[in-house]
């Protein structure tokens, strides 16, 4: 088949990260080419370059045999490249037809010819089998239908190469099936699709070829028929376990955290945690493995008191802390490293010293009588932690904004670990953190366990889960689908469970046992 | 704020200075249209406002209410809130102070005056707490509600001074407040009063509260990153209401000063946009108490000099209002300067 | 009881309602264009005031009140454009920029008044736009006395409302305008020039506010009075919110607020202080805002500078 798109040697450097390192990538006419990799592997950057949102530092793009320059989305649209973003580019109060024609309207004088726009959308929707009501308002549509509008928008602009950026991340299983069918239809009509995902099952179900990226580099491209889940999982996460953590056998004690039938909705009202029960014991690390977006975020935020649960109970050290405000939970013995340090963990414009007391600022020694802050205590605390946690550069008065990602994370870790909490929740503790800091943070987590803390570790990095955890729970679709002792877990098994497989169905070393 | 020797970034000082200079240049154009020399007009202005003790005292007297409204707006800004309702809070605070001033006569000054001042603060605080509450509870932006509250305050006080609390004459104003509730003059015949000390104290209190206490720590955290503040156990809704209320109390003090120090009674619509000028003062003063005092003095000087300029040259005094508008405009468009400086830096 | 109803609802009051609503209509529609594009315009009050003054100055020097209106339109447009430069190009806080314009306008109009007319407070009388009588309509009973004999600018305001409705909801530009104010990123991604659209909308909003001010000075009255807009720019803002950012909704709100304005004197006769009637628009707007919670009707990107990526 003819090659319609070729990207050669694409390199893109962001401050501190080499997001794309000489990546080459091509797409054939009428194929579905899956582009997979963990978060931060460089998929989105690569596609943003293709769509003109970023400019590559080096490399070439050829479309239909011609070398092209893509400086902005307009250029991409003119080359018949369309993109459906993870965050939809739809104007909510406008109708489907208005959104689809926006910017390339069907006019009658200065007026929008709405009836013809509707007819055109109907024609498109019929010919591609994308059922939609052109007169419906976007805000009244489900996420799945909104995505359909985005696809139609690209097709209306004549897209022959369609980029779908993690389209299934926001869909229900039923909607995923519908999307798969749409993709089949599009392929049958000759559209080439670049399908970004990190769900192996989907890759196997629909793609013709698959390209795997890891840490900004291309690992390889294979025909989907020649691969299997284990193979792909290994390509994605890497075979070699980079980080070996030294730790002794766990000596678990009594239950510290107990969660019973917890149900949590997100801000849009969708159920994200569907009846989770789990316990974490003193002196052990319970790792929660899972593909991101399966409810881990909501589970953790609920445990920290930041979201109210719909139902269920949470006990900390035997006390029912359900619905307690965050501060009270903290004071009851929670240490919490949030997954997004910029959103939750730090006030970036506060100094390191001020960040080191966030959440502790209401108590002695940082608060004296009459609500006055004790600057000596704050300064001493900062001096001590900066040294103990090796925060660099070691200037407590500097704003946290000026630190590297790894050092920012050390500020959060220092604050949360130093209090010797009963329960320590670490969500994605080493995301966007350099290797040196990863190692340091891992050692600290183990040290906390050995001190007697109950540790709940949530991570999308299998390496991290496997090297730190004493027990491993797998979360899928808002539920804990399995809890395994560390000895019984390996990458293959966890990968299988993370994709929604059942423990009973797992055959060690088996072949393509995820499909179906 | 831990390291007192911390250097103030150049841009923090430079941008307001540039804004003022640019505004003066724009003002020069206006002065030229009436055929006067900008240089001599500005000289008259400066001489009047800084050239004599008496002039300087008048400058300070004019600056005093602006210090209060500037602090008020800045306090809310630090919590990420835009209190454009200082004008209305000022009126309500002023009326409350006046009411205590003319109602509870016969009290000794040491009780009456503080009581009237407290009333002014409470009046302003309540008026400001409403948009704060609507923001905290329903997420309605405070700007639009503050504007609405301004007009409600105007008409409410209009009614109070033309209806139930009108003084004996047909003039729309209240009775005079008792002497026991007035602020003492510092330098007669100028009308500078001890309100200046209250303003300095308010600035000091704001500094202390904002950078030395737990409450200030929480307010600033909410202003800079509300989600992180929530994570840090800070009750964002409570802080929003508290910050608005304190801001309103400061605005109420501005009104109080106008009653107990200047007019000695509530006159219908007495305020020459003091609340709105507070936005200018706060921005020009970079939302810092010291900057606010300096900015208020600048505006006070402009107003003091305006009369002399009007008298001694053919430049109408309204030039000053124009200048104030232009200064706010340039302060608002600060990105102009940062961009300018950046492009210099890159070149 | 019947007497009270007759006092409150009669052709004189309704005709006055239309007159009072007119300046609000121009300005509210202006506000709608600006906010629909994503720019908050608190400066409407100042733009109205500058329009009112310019109309008088031009009418004074040319002898034509209509040229005065044209002058007000241009002066308002200039102020709108300046607000645009600050809020679009230099990403100024739009509320601050609007406040600056209001203060600036208060000073400028008095400054110029003293320079041009050499008097403070009130300008000399200037030619004004005369009322017209519509040939057939004025003869219809009940309706005739209300809409049959009015100032041409009253009719113009009603036409502007209808026109704005068509422009915003039926034209391609209107579609783009709405998309820019709701989701500038989406508009940008399909090649719509966000900045240009916003400039046009804010400039238009200033022009309309200028005309609204001109109505006060050269149609309703025939002179400029210091601070004569007296908060009407903010009432127009309230009408815009109350009318849910739709011209027809704003028409309803302006008529209601105009009615309250027209009733003031009569209500006072039956013992209701005018000030409470004057407060009404503001109180109702606050109530309406609480009522609108959860149903987002304001343009979503309103007040946010748009920063292009990359």
Secondary structure elements and pairings:
The complex is a heterotrimer of chains A (516), B (347) and C (310).
Chain A: E1 3-14, E2 17-28, E3 32-36, H1 43-50, E4 58-63, E5 66-68, H2 73-78, E6 81-84, H3 96-101, E7 107-108, E8 111-112, H4 114-127, H5 143-156, E9 161-165, H6 173-188, E10 192-197, H7 200-206, E11 209-214, E12 217-223, H8 229-237, E13 255-265, E14 271-281, E15 285-289, H9 296-303, E16 311-316, E17 319-320, H10 326-331, E18 334-337, H11 341-345, H12 352-355, H13 375-388, H14 405-417, E19 423-427, H15 435-451, E20 454-459, H16 462-468, E21 471-476, E22 479-485, H17 491-498
Parallel strand pairs in A: 3-10, 3-11, 6-9, 9-10, 15-20, 15-21, 18-19, 19-20
Antiparallel strand pairs in A: 1-2, 1-4, 4-5, 7-8, 11-12, 13-14, 13-16, 16-17, 21-22
Helix pairs in contact in A: 8-17, 14-15
Chain B: H1 10-33, H2 38-50, H3 53-78, H4 86-103, H5 109-138, H6 142-162, H7 195-212, H8 214-224, H9 226-231, H10 236-263, H11 274-284, H12 289-312, H13 319-332, H14 335-346
Helix pairs in contact in B: 1-13, 2-3, 2-12, 3-7, 3-10, 3-11, 3-12, 4-5, 4-6, 4-10, 4-11, 5-6, 5-10, 7-8, 7-12, 8-10, 11-12, 11-13, 12-13
Chain C: H1 2-8, H2 11-36, H3 44-62, H4 65-89, H5 94-116, E1 132-133, H6 143-148, E2 149-150, H7 152-170, H8 172-182, H9 184-189, H10 194-220, H11 232-242, H12 247-269, H13 274-291
Antiparallel strand pairs in C: 1-2
Helix pairs in contact in C: 2-7, 2-10, 2-11, 2-12, 3-4, 3-5, 3-10, 3-11, 4-5, 4-10, 7-8, 8-10, 11-12, 11-13, 12-13
């Amino acid at each position: 088949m003819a090659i319609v798109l070729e990207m050669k040697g694409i390199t893109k450097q962001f401050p501190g990260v080499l997001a794309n390192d000489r990546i080459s990538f091509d797409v054939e006419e009428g194929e579905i080419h899956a582009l997979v990799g963990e978060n931060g592997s460089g998929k989105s950057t690569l596609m943003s370059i293709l769509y003109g949102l970023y400019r590559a530092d080096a490399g070439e793009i050829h479309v239909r045999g011609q070398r092209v320059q893509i400086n902005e989305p307009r250029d991409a649209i003119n080359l018949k490249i369309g993109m459906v973003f993870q965050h939809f580019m739809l104007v909510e109060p406008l109708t489907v037809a208005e959104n689809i024609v926006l910017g390339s309207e069907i006019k009658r004088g200065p007026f929008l010819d709405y009836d013809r726009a509707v007819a055109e959308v109907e024609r498109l929707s019929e010919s591609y089998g994308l059922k939609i009501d052109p007169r419906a308002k976007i805000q009244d549509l489900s996420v799945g239908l909104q995505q359909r509008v985005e696809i139609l928008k690209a097709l209306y602009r004549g897209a022959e190469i369609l980029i779908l950026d993690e389209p299934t991340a926001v869909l229900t299983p039923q909607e995923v099936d519908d999307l798969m069918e749409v993709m089949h239809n599009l392929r049958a009509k000759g559209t080439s699709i670049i399908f970004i995902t990190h769900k192996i099952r989907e890759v196997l179900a629909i793609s013709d070829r698959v390209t795997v990226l890891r840490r900004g580099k291309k690992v390889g491209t294979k025909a989907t028929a020649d691969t299997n889940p284990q193979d792909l999982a290994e390509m994605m996460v890497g075979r070699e376990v980079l980080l070996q953590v030294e730790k002794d056998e766990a000596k678990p004690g009594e239950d510290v955290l107990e969660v019973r039938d917890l149900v949590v909705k997100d801000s849009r009202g969708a159920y994200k945690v569907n009846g989770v029960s789990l316990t974490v014991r003193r002196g052990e690390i319970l790792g929660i493995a899972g593909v991101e977006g399966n409810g881990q975020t909501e589970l953790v935020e609920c445990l920290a008191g930041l979201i109210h649960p719909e139902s269920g109970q949470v006990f900390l050290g035997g006390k029912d802390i359900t619905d307690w405000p965050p501060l009270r939970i903290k004071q009851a013995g929670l240490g919490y490293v949030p997954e997004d340090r910029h959103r939750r963990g730090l006030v970036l414009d506060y100094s390191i010293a001020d960040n080191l007391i966030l959440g502790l600022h209401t108590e002695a020694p940082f608060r004296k009588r009459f609500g006055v802050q004790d600057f000596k205590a704050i300064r001493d605390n900062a001096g001590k932690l900066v040294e103990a946690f090796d925060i660099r550069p070691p200037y407590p008065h500097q704003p946290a904004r000026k630190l590297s990602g790894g050092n920012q994370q050390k500020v959060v870790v220092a604050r949360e670990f130093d209090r010797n909490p009963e329960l320590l929740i670490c969500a994605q503790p080493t995301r966007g953190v350099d290797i040196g800091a990863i190692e340091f943070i891992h050692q600290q987590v183990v040290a906390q366990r050995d001190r007697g803390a109950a540790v709940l570790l949530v991570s999308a990095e299998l390496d991290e889960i496997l090297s730190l955890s004493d027990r491993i729970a797998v979360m899928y679709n808002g539920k804990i689908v399995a809890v395994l002792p560390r000895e019984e877990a390996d990458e293959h098994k966890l990968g299988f469970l993370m994709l929604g497989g059942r423990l009973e169905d797992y055959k060690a070393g088996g072949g393509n046992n995820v499909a179906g | 704020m831990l390291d007192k020797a911390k250097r103030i970034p150049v841009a923090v000082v430079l941008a307001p200075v540039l804004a003022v200079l640019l505004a003066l240049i724009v003002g020069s154009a206006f002065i030229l249209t009436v055929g006067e020399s900008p240089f001599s007009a500005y000289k008259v202005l400066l001489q009047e406002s800084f050239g004599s003790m008496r002039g300087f005292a008048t400058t300070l007297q004019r600056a005093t209410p602006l210090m209060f409204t500037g602090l008020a707006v800045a306090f809310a800004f630090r919590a990420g809130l835009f209190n454009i309702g200082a004008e209305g809070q000022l009126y309500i605070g002023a009326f409350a102070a006046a009411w205590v001033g003319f109602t509870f006569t016969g009290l000794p000054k040491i009780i009456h005056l503080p009581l009237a001042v407290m009333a002014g603060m409470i009046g302003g605080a309540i008026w400001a707490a409403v948009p704060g509450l609507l923001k905290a509870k329903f997420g309605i932006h405070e700007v639009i509600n503050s504007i609405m509250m301004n007009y409600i305050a105007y008409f409410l006080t209009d009614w109070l001074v033309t209806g139930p609390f009108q003084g004996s004459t047909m003039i729309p104003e209240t009775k005079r407040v008792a002497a026991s509730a007035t602020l003492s003059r510092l330098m007669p015949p100028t009308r500078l009063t001890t309100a200046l000390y209250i303003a300095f104290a308010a600035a000091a209190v704001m500094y202390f509260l904002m950078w030395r206490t737990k409450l200030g720590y929480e307010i600033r955290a909410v202003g800079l990153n509300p989600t992180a503040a929530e994570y840090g156990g800070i009750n964002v809704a409570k802080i929003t209401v508290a910050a608005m209320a304190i801001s309103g109390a400061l605005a109420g003090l501005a009104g109080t000063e106008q009653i107990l120090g200047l007019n000695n009674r509530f006159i219908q619509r007495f305020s020459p946009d003091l609340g709105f000028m507070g936005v200018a003062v706060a921005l020009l003063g970079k939302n810092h108490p010291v900057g606010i005092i300096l900015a208020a003095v600048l505006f006070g000087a402009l107003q003091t000099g305006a009369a002399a300029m009007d008298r001694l040259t053919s430049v109408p005094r309204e030039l000053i209002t124009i200048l104030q508008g232009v200064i706010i405009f340039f302060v608002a468009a600060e990105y102009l300067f940062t961009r300018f400086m950046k492009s210099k830096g890159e070149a | 009881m019947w007497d009270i109803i007759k006092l409150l609802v009669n052709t004189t009051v309704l005709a006055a309602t239309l007159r009072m609503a007119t300046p609000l209509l121009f300005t509210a529609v202006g506000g709608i264009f600006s906010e629909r594009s994503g720019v908050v315009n608190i400066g409407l009050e100042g733009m109205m005031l500058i329009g009112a003054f310019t109309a008088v100055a031009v009418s004074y020097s040319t002898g034509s009140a209509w040229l005065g209106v044209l002058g007000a339109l241009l002066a308002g447009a200039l102020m709108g454009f300046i607000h645009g430069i600050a809020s679009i190009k230099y990403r100024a806080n739009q509320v601050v920029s609007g406040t600056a314009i209001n203060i600036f306008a208060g000073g400028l109009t008095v400054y110029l008044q003293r320079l041009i007319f050499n008097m403070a407070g009130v300008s000399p009388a200037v030619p004004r736009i005369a009322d017209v009588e519509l040939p057939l309509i004025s003869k219809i009973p009940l309706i005739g006395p209300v809409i049959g004999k009015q100032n041409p600018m009253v009719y113009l305001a009603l036409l502007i409302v209808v026109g704005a409705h068509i422009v915003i909801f039926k034209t391609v530009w209107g579609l783009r305008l709405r998309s820019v104010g709701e989701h500038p990123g989406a508009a940008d991604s399909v090649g719509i020039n966000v900045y240009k659209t916003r400039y046009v909308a804010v400039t238009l909003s200033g022009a309309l506010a200028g005309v609204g001010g001109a109505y006060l000075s050269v149609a309703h009255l025939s002179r400029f009075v210091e601070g004569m807009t007296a908060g009407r720019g903010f009432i127009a803002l309230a009408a815009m919110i109350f009318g849910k950012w739709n011209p027809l909704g704003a028409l309803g709100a302006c008529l209601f607020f105009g009615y309250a304005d027209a009733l003031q004197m009569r209500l006072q006769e039956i013992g209701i202080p005018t000030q409470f009637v004057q407060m009404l628009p503001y109180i109702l707007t606050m109530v309406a805002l609480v009522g609108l919670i959860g149903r987002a009707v304001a343009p979503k990107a309103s007040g946010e500078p748009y920063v292009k990526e990359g």
